[in-house]
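Can anyone check this?
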Amino acid sequence: MEYIILLIVGFIAGTIGSLVGLGGGIVIVPLLTGLGALLHLPNVSPQLAVGTSIVTVVFTGLSSTLSYMKHKRVDYKSGLLFFLGSGPGSMVGSWANQFFNQDSFSLYFGIFMIAVSVLLMLKEKLKPVPFSKKRAITRSFITEEGKTVQYGFHPATAVILSFLIGCISGLFGVGGGSLLVPAMLLLFAFPPHIAVATSMLVVFLSSVTGSITHILLGNVIWLYALLLVPGAWAGGRFGAYINMKLSGKTIINILRAVLIMIGARMIYQSLF
């Protein structure tokens, strides 16, 4: 029975992660840390939960990225530049994860999720940093309505920011998209669909480097990972499909709701 549940968890995580650009770790990590008591299995430590999650996120990221590529939503050049920072950052975060215990991990994970959701709540009031052609890298995107949207960023800013996001990715096993998507939307004025699709490319690449570190540290439950991966792969493709059917505002609202629910649950788990 527990194996079927893991397959379902993988599918749900892959769908949500792909839909809003997170990678799925925000679903897998809380469920793995609470899975032992629920299914009468041995307790899973934060280190094992994060390591197993980030291995699964590799496949969620790859699956959804391939789907987004078909619809030409991925900004490859920007994604690779962000990876220059997020790749090393995810390795540093994966190493630092070993210093967490169960309660502190749940508390900080929950606070992190709530903080991101608050940031997105303020998005309607906060305006993206005005686009300037002085930025070293500029991009343009034509919406379905035929409107041309311009966005851009400075390479140094992108690499430093993505390094910090990569650290959080490796630390919590969330894929990094939970911070990268808001940063793309608010700081660099990315269109929401492009931000999510490009984030999944970065999530895929950085989760590969983070996985290597966790594997070397022995932080992966391979049986769980093998059961989560098929569901995550299917969910990644399904989430990308749904993303194509929704407006940018709807995607942001879904992201916000998911973060609040998971964050509140983790904080509650750490305190009671």
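Reply from J.R.: I decoded it. Residues 2-271 form one domain.
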